[in-house]
Design a protein that fits this description.
MetI-like fold, mainly alpha, globular
Amino acid sequence: MSRTYVLRRGLQAVGTLLVIVTALFFLFRLGLPDPTVALVTDGLSPEDRAAVRERFGLDRPLVEQYVIYLGNIVRGEFGTSFHYKAPVAGVVWEKFANTMVLMLVAIVFAYLLGIPLGAYLAWRRGTRTDTLGIVLGLTFRSAPMFWTGMLAVLLFGVALGWLPTSGMRTLPYEAANFFDKVFTLDFLRHLVMPATIIALFYLGSPLLIMRNTMLEVYGEDFIEMARAKGLPERDVLYRHAARNALLPVITQLAVTIGLAAGGQVVVEVVFSWPGLGREILQAVRTSDFPLAQATFMLMAVLVIAMNFLADLLYGALDPRVKLR
């Protein structure tokens, strides 16, 4: 792999991130109301209101705030949350960890199931199995998650009582650390319903993309050559066709994992999951600039990083792709 290619893609990623960081800074300050509205109580004097603005650096010129903002990012400092009155990094990390546990479990399940199923549907193209798979994939992808989530809560949580309906753990509980919180049977019981709802929603993408790409690959000359050599159809399907059909699936997976940092706000609200998705909504509502900027920037970093990784994986998956 060419070092020049990696360096060029790395510089492009840094440039893209700088543009996004700049856009976030100005959009939140110009598009949202004055954050002091959420920070002060009714009847506060103008002098006290000005003191609040000075405490958070909102009294300085916008350009000066932007320079300070970039400098803090370079040092890994994201300021203090207006709402929590605590460092943003600590707030974001806790919510981000909760979200990524939920999202990664759902995404891994969806893609591990969707990729082989999509290849199998391509093999059985034109049959009732193929038609049923397409219908189910489109249904899961089209069904609103708040609707399927509420159905799951009513059926498995309320009617049958098999699973808990909200939160990450049964209250009250005390966890010494994050690993102590998630590596328990109680946490797994809380994880099942929201993770399944998200997985069913994401399942349609790898399933349908893999199926359609496999049908295109089936028409390639190397597939006919493999069959002419007398290879079993299963080997032709999974060792030759599936490998070359993975490229668009890998791209979709990279974007999906990147966007996973934002969580699924609807699912987190329905199941009262204390994740980053709900926190983003709360930060925008309260004009919490530092927290909102940090969360959206985290999403941007993950999306850019995962796309960069997908570009590098292309060469390993398909020898026809040249990285120059």
